[in-house]
Amino acid sequence: MIKKYVWLVHLLCLGFLLVVYSADPALAQSADNWNIGLSTIGNGSAMGSLIGIAPWAHDGYDGGTGMYINPSYKVIILDYYKEYGPDWDGPSGFYGGDFEKTPIAAGESRTWSGFYLWAQNITPTTANRVAIYSPNDPYLPPPAGYMGHLVLDYVPESCNYTGSMDFWLDLTVRTDLSLPIPVVTDPLQGTRFHMTVFAPVPEPSSLAVLGMGIAPLAMFGFRKRRW
Questions:
Q1: What does the DSSP assignment read for 135-186?
Q2: What is the DSSP annotation of 95-108?
Q3: Which 3 state secondary structure label does DSSP give 66?
Q4: Cα(153)–Cα(193) distance, rounded to whole angstroms?
Q5: What is the pLDDT of residue 174?
Q6: Domain ranges in the chain?
Q7: Taking a C-beta distance cutoff of 8 angstroms, is the pair 129, 114 a contact?
Q8: 215 phi, psi to nearest 5 deg
Q9: Residue 94 pLDDT greater than 90, yes or no
Q10: The pTM is what?
Q11: pLDDT tens string 12-54
């Protein structure tokens, strides 16, 4: 009689383990909501961008009219530019970033292209840097375990830049980068880059926990066939 219900006990244990696994933010993060900030720091910094995954977002275009950048301001800006097309049905222009609705699957990646960095009416100094960080938002937590790959696509010759063109980032912590900031009247002639975000693969220890729940069922099935 006891053996008759062993399978049910194991099934309940497996269900409990799955609930624990899905409830653990660190383990379920690959399907969670998160955001990353990209902005300039130092004297004259004014605008930055946000990217991430949010439940209220739409894949492609979230609405709005873009951002107006007053050409008379003395500022350093990092903004996200999108052109009207198949993946963006809003007007061409600069935006404060882009949120997607569909999560990045574990072990997969997603790329946000079209970041521009420039200064207008002000000369950048060595104190002006670019910060990649996780904003303090209770609804969109830091992307635990995620990695980022920032690649410079275009740097104006006026910058005389000889540094690295790509940077690997731990998106769990803040990183400050010394990127070339040109002084231009046309923002689309500024430094251009893209960011690829990589979602983590579940840790072996987490998979082992699931295996501990599945193994008894497999063993029971084997024993049952022998009875």
A1: ---SSS---TT-EEEEEEEE--GGG---S-SEEEEETTS-EEE-----B-SS
A2: ESEEEESSPPPTT-
A3: coil
A4: 5
A5: 95
A6: 3-26+205-226, 32-202
A7: no
A8: -55, -45
A9: yes
A10: 0.78
A11: 444 443 443 444 444 444 457 999 999 999 988 888 999 999 9
Buried b (16+ CB within 10 A) or exposed e, 170-205: ebeeebeeebbbbbbeebeebbbbebebbbbebeee
What was the pLDDT predicted at 13?
45
d(C-alpha 169, C-alpha 174), whole Å: 9
Q: Quick check: 54 and 35 in contact, CB under 8 A?
A: yes
How many Cβ atoms sit within 10 Å of the Cβ of residue 38? Answer: 24
What does the block give as tokens for 101? 């609705």
pLDDT tens for each residue of 115-164: 999 999 999 999 999 999 999 888 898 898 999 999 999 999 999 999 99
Residue 155: strand pairing partners: none
DSSP letter string over 73-96? --EEEEEEEE-SBTTB-S-SEEES
Distance of CA 143 to the CA centre of its chain: 7
Identify the H or E element spanning 224: helix 204-226
